[in-house]
Design goal:
- There is one protein chain.
- Helix 5 packs antiparallel against helix 6, helix 8 packs antiparallel against helix 10 and helix 8 packs across helix 16.
- The termini are far apart.
- The chain has a two-stranded antiparallel ribbon.
- By secondary structure, it is mainly alpha-helical.
- It is globular, with a radius of gyration of 26 Å.
- It has one domain.
- It contains 17 helices and two strands.
- The longest helix has 48 residues.
């Protein structure tokens, strides 16, 4: 069944993918349950991950609606696709802002009395709490996205059909108002058509098919991928600051979900070619693997007790850390790592949340414009032509490129994070050996 799905059986591919996506919700809910038990996680971080469920609630009815109303998949209706993908982008933005914000440690000391021994034991625990409210930036950007969606819907004649308006049943005032609205919408459509024609002429490529993504929709797709990588960098740094291994494991667990997004982008790059429906199945598989990995990492976090010595360090230790940070070796290391996408946050670390979000979006839009241009140039080369004698190689060649598109970024990210994970584990082991040597000397 998998073989037929990979070849060109669209219904089979969807039949396999649908239960994978549905089943993946279960480990994600369990992940949230365990995350709520992690004392080093702030409430903003918990609610940020929980907002991903909003995307699930929106996407399922939207997919059903487009199938019944337009007899096609949601990704072929650009404006609705933009709205759904925006939900993921907003979730990812809230996650990275939650981990970008600092936290305040709260000392919660509890006392337990032993009746037999007539003594009292004090247990010191530390809970991380929020410092600020980064969700405000997400709410502001959500308003912009909804406005953009309205404009895209107006540009799509399948969603807003100006010719179907009946002016006979309206009053004169209503006719004037509706006429001005329709003229505005039509001028938008004319301008969009002219801009798109100029853009394709500049690239010397044929006109894009009807289901090709617009620049805004490519923008939110790329934005969600960039945000997820930057969020991984912040989660990793948060684990370094709290010295909890579970956060490092959570960073690695986020990799399959990034690969899931790459599957969708790859399919869109080739204009949702029917022979690539197996990517939907692979996307579902990456999603369920990623959610299970998140669950495992959250269980580790829930079982790790916050360490008092990490949060309430002595001033001397802080001074030593400042000296270490100011070394030339550290600055050289930062210059190397700062160009990794997940380290992009370091470039804008002094910005407020709104400026930071704008800069991340600006970078993503630039990448999206380049990707769409590349798609317009290369995707037509793989359009299946049954009259072509060499058409039999269409599936093999296109599938090979699609696999490379998915697995090369995944492999690069996995190797990079594994090396970083091992490097910090070795550094921690050396520090423990040094501490033991110092205690033996004393």
């Amino acid at each position: 069944m998998l073989k037929s799905a990979i070849l060109d059986e669209r219904s089979t591919a969807i039949a396999i993918a649908s239960p994978l996506f549905a089943t993946s919700v279960v480990p994600y809910l369990l992940f949230l349950k365990n995350l709520w038990g992690a004392e080093t996680a702030t409430s903003e971080q918990k609610y940020a991950f929980a907002t991903l469920l909003v995307f699930v609630l929106i996407s399922i009815p939207a997919e059903v609606y487009t199938k019944e109303r337009y007899d096609t998949v949601l990704s072929n209706i650009d404006s609705l696709h933009f709205l759904i993908q925006s939900a993921i982008s907003l979730t990812n933005l809230r996650i990275l802002l939650a981990f970008r914000e600092d936290f305040n440690p709260i000392d919660t000391t509890t006392f337990k009395e032993e009746k037999d021994a007539n003594s009292i034991f004090a247990t010191t625990r530390i809970t991380a709490v929020d410092n600020g409210r980064p969700g405000a930036a997400v709410e502001a950007i959500a308003g912009i996205i909804l406005l953009s969606t309205g404009i895209l819907m107006a540009l799509d004649d399948r969603l807003i059909d100006l010719s179907s308006i009946d002016f006979k049943a309206m009053s004169e005032t209503s006719i004037q108002f509706i006429s001005s609205v329709t003229r505005t919408i039509q001028s938008w459509r004319d301008y969009a058509q002219e801009f798109d024609s100029s853009f394709t002429s500049l690239l010397n490529v044929p006109t894009h098919p009807a289901n090709a993504l617009s620049v805004p929709t490519w923008g939110v797709h790329v934005l969600s991928l960039v945000e997820w990588l930057v969020a991984m960098g912040f989660v990793w740094d948060y684990g370094t600051r709290t010295r909890h291994r579970g956060w490092k494991m959570l960073t690695l667990a986020m990799l399959p979900l990034h690969a899931s997004g790459i599957c969708a982008v790859t399919q869109h790059f080739f204009n949702n070619d029917p022979s690539l429906e197996w990517l939907v199945t692979m996307q579902g598989a990456f999603t369920i693997v990623g959610n299970i990995s998140l669950l495992y990492a959250a269980k580790t976090l829930a079982n790790e007790e916050p360490r008092l010595d990490v949060f309430l360090a002595e001033e001397d230790d802080k001074e030593e850390k400042k000296k270490k940070i100011n070394t030339e070796a550290w600055r050289q290391k930062t210059r190397i790592e700062i160009w990794d996408v997940e380290r992009l946050g370091l470039l804008f670390e002094k910005d407020d949340e709104f400026t930071f979000s704008f800069k991340i979006a600006l970078v993503s839009i630039g990448i999206a414009a380049f990707v769409r241009g590349a798609s317009l140039v290369f995707a037509p080369e793989f359009v299946y032509n049954p009259l072509d004698n060499g058409g039999g190689n269409h599936h093999d060649e296109l599938n090979a490129y699609a696999l490379l598109f998915v697995f090369i970024p995944l492999l690069i990210n996995y190797v990079k994070w594994q090396l970083r994970f091992r490097s910090e584990e070795e550094e921690r082991a050396l520090m423990k050996i040094g501490e033991r040597g110092m205690s033996n000397t004393k």
